[in-house]
Amino acid sequence: MTPTRSSSYTSAGVTIPSASDINAAAARIAPHVRQTPVLCTAAGDLGLGYPVTLKLELLQHAGSFKPRGAFNRILAARELEELPAAGVIAASGGNHGAAVAYAARALGLGVEIFVPELTPPAKHARIESFGARLVRTGATYAEALDASRARRAETGAMEVHAYDHPAVLAGQGTTAREFEADAPELTHVLVATGGGGLIGGMAAWYGGRVGVVSVEPVACPALHDALAAGHPVPSPVGGVAADSLGAREVGKIMFPIAAAYVSAAVLVADDAIRAAQCLLWDRLRLIAEPGGATALAALLSGAWTPPDGARVGVLVCGSNADPATVVS
Amino acid sequence: MTPTRSSSYTSAGVTIPSASDINAAAARIAPHVRQTPVLCTAAGDLGLGYPVTLKLELLQHAGSFKPRGAFNRILAARELEELPAAGVIAASGGNHGAAVAYAARALGLGVEIFVPELTPPAKHARIESFGARLVRTGATYAEALDASRARRAETGAMEVHAYDHPAVLAGQGTTAREFEADAPELTHVLVATGGGGLIGGMAAWYGGRVGVVSVEPVACPALHDALAAGHPVPSPVGGVAADSLGAREVGKIMFPIAAAYVSAAVLVADDAIRAAQCLLWDRLRLIAEPGGATALAALLSGAWTPPDGARVGVLVCGSNADPATVVS
Questions:
Q1: Residue B39: closest C-alpha in chain A
Q2: What is the ipTM of this complex?
Q3: How many CB atoms lie within 10 A of CB B137?
Q4: List of chain B residues whose C-beta atoms are within 8 Å of the C-beta of residue A30
């Protein structure tokens, strides 16, 4: 099950983004997203014995990578004249909702965002600051998604799924495209996994050229459990990063990509995530939310150790936290 | 009074860093400092009608540009076998002290740092975290400097001046060298001025190729006043950025460089600095201290407006703030 590098393909009814899809996404979203910078840290700098290259995707619009997928989904639909007059609707733990709200404002569309009760107040404010109608409902993302679908049946708005749509994956895959252009020497890239749209898109881009390592909280092990089971399975949702990484199960589209191209799927404790947030502030003056610090936590905690000669990259993917919760 | 681009020269007893000096500094400090990234923001992104290229020097070690000058000063002295057994001593509003402490730890030297009473607690903690002996004395930087010099007379340690030393200016000038390499299209670069080591080094590098715009708080107008008087003069020290930009007067070495190559020297109100801090957090998820946000404040407040066709860069130079004071 090896996708070609030049065209998308369909397996068991699932369309996998190709490199061409991701190139097209990059061109489509270029006017709307930031090319986020890369920062090279020296051996020892982060308390590790090797250098680490960070992609600072937390400096993206709306504070996370999510606008890449949101813009690609919406703009691709607009190209096909499939955007309804009712605008767009999304369910989210917070970051995707902020991104969809940001994109809708930029494109002049109506937007409703459904978030669960676990979404922190800072993310409510972020979503509303972009002019979206915010609805808080359900305990977790999965319940907010159900509520958003009931609403969509009434309004006819287009769903912008947080991860399980080919255009969303292709948009998130542009992160890897940029990272590879700026840091072509990397042999391994660590990425936090929630529903898997980001790592799915990135792994589709890298296509095995780079070892893509999934990092999840122990309390949100959806990809870890899915790879063990051989298919997506319901998993617990909890812990400090549940608002950004708390999908009940990984997407159907990302799963075959992960099965083919994710080289390891490791888990980190909440304490390790908090420690990574503190270190990012102390050493680099970056405010990362728990989900944004999760990938780095795998290195700091030893949950994943690079093989000899590896050149390691880490995606720092989100910053929508109250800094008071980060700075000790 | 035009320095050649290839060698330093001496005017009225003052040695001006040349491009060669700055190239040598860059090579000397390369193992010890970060190449900080550049972030391009689109027109409208920061509420301005034009794009702005930011150099994120606030992600430097110890949270500001200061390690560049500190390492160059100390390493140049070590090359000449001029480093005393007593180590190094410095006076500082905080950022330079943190940088000297960081450099001394990296190089295995003893270090004492003198800070005035206006230095905020976050900077005390930063300096002590690097293992320095911290002395709090005097109302402003100038008084802390006097106290450090009395102490130096007892110990024989080497002074690492916060700005008025050729090796410090050459080190800070490496910021412009990197900025020009990463953003060669810029026609104007805005830089905050305190004692003037940073803007002096940067203006020495650019040498008139780029318009270097000085930005100071209304409450700390040392370069503005010096250029008006035709020589460094004592100026008020106050306001929200006094800990990082509160030199009583600009350095003797930077002044002729500024007179030749600083194309404008503008002032911004404290409220504009606070607004720039808030915007950097809201739009870019960056925590800048007041002095770090001062250069951007000139654009946001309209204190400086780019001419038609300008390509504008801003140095974001420091982040040693308690985020609770930044995030509204």
A1: A37
A2: 0.94
A3: 16
A4: none
